[in-house]
Amino acid sequence: MWPYPTILAHRGGGTLAPENTLAALRCGWSHGFRGVEFDVMLTRDQEPILMHDPVLGRTLPGSGKIADHTLSELLALDAGGWHSPAFAGEPVCTLAQAMAFCRQHAVWMNVEIKPASEAVAVATGTVAALALKSAFADAIGAHVAGHNDATLPLFSSFSFEALMAAKIAAPEIPRGFLVDTIPDDWQQQLQILDAVALHTNHKNLSERQARAIKDAGFGLFCYTVNDPQRAREIRGWGVDGICTDRIDLIGPD
Fold this sequence. Notes:
By secondary structure, the chain is of the alpha/beta class. The protein is 32% helix and 17% strand. The protein has helices spanning 22-30, 71-75, 95-104, 121-135, 137-142, 160-169, 186-193, 207-215, 228-237, and strands at residues 7-10, 35-42, 48-50, 108-113, 154-157, 175-179, 197-201, 219-223, 241-244. An eight-stranded parallel barrel has the order 1-2-4-5-6-7-8-9, surrounded by six helices.
């Protein structure tokens, strides 16, 4: 149920590089990670970029909403200086750039669809799905129906609507449903999404829940695990994969 890398670099390079940038992807790759997680959001002109926060101020200087800025406006901002002087001037990374890097270096992608708001959930899911469908047309063409393998990336999202839109636009690309706390109807939601896995906060996961998810035939992925002892514990429960910020403490699989 989880043929993918089991330990992913969170937002590309964890705490060692500015998140969701090409520098972060290079950092994760240089530390041996062949699986990464990153977030995708739309700009005002509907361009998919790697971004977590819907507003400027933390990883980008300024104020206002990401969705109110065009790609060219965002590319003019420094996406790395907030992290450390060594990354000053690092630009915003587009989804196309991230896909090109990961494909070139054989890095598997967990692409989290991150709508700036639920009003643009469908648009964000659709644009991201069509971009990946085009980029991975060769792998999709060679893919055996019903057989999940790491030749294709995986979509995840907290937004049910965004994942449904991705399912419609690119049904061939697998999906994982993200939840902070596992709801009672988790299995029904996974079935509606035709998802291959449940992704959840490890802090809210119990061993009983982990066993139920695995017994139901789904993959189980946890975010964001930064303690090696905790990682070993939940892996013992049957958790298939994790992402981590501490790529200096928890190495790749």
